[in-house]
Amino acid sequence: MDVILFLIFAIIAVVCAINVVVQTHPISSAISLVGVMGSLAILYLTLGAEFLAAAQVIVYAGAVMVLFVFVIMLLNAGAETKKGQSSMALFLGGPLLVALLILLVWFVQSRYSETVHFGGFRGGSAQDVGRALFTTYLLPFEVTSILILIAILGAIVLARKEMD
Amino acid sequence: MHPIGTVHYLALSTALLLIGTVGVLTRRNIVIILMSIELILNAVNINLIVFSHALHSVSGQVFAIFVITDAVAEAAVGLGILIALFRNKETVLADEIDLLKW
User: Fold this and answer.
1) Does A35 touch chain B (CB under 8 A)?
2) pLDDT score for A84
């Protein structure tokens, strides 16, 4: 059960992520990104993070993607053409990437060998997360609210029309 | 069947991080660059949540919430900058915005 769930949604996530980068039209990329967010939400559920799975769907697949699609429509951005492809980068980058991945696998494999069981960790409910958020992490939480306020002000100031 | 471990989730996270990095580096459309940044931040979230599972602590999930908040703030400000830029330059391609190039 764990294996099947993980494989299905991990493969969906990776394929959609590749699609985000490969598609030439921004709207196709945005739809693929929704697929990534949705399958990641399912994977969060298998890890026992129920609250975060809900937040992922509501915040990312809902709010952020609507914002992206809205801006794409507003700017009427069309498909982009390729230009300036470098074969030198492919020759140098490919082997370096493989070397980095081998190093990473060797490093991680020797340290983390726990298995993940569905329902093995029950600490991700809204109650548990909320308690941690409002006791241990109260100061970061409040600072984050200031950050959001600044971001709202910044977005309004940047996007409004200049008044004469 | 071989059980799924923490390592598999880390591998998924690495894959998303690499794909996002490739997107940031190779695409010209600024909207798609911002989407690739969202991919990278999601890879970070997978890491935080799988370690929260492995260490039986809820702290990782709290940090994932902070990362989600930052990602949303970043998207809002980024798209605001993009709209302001489009009003002046009539383009969304990153390589055509070269006002500061000497």
Assistant:
1) no
2) 67
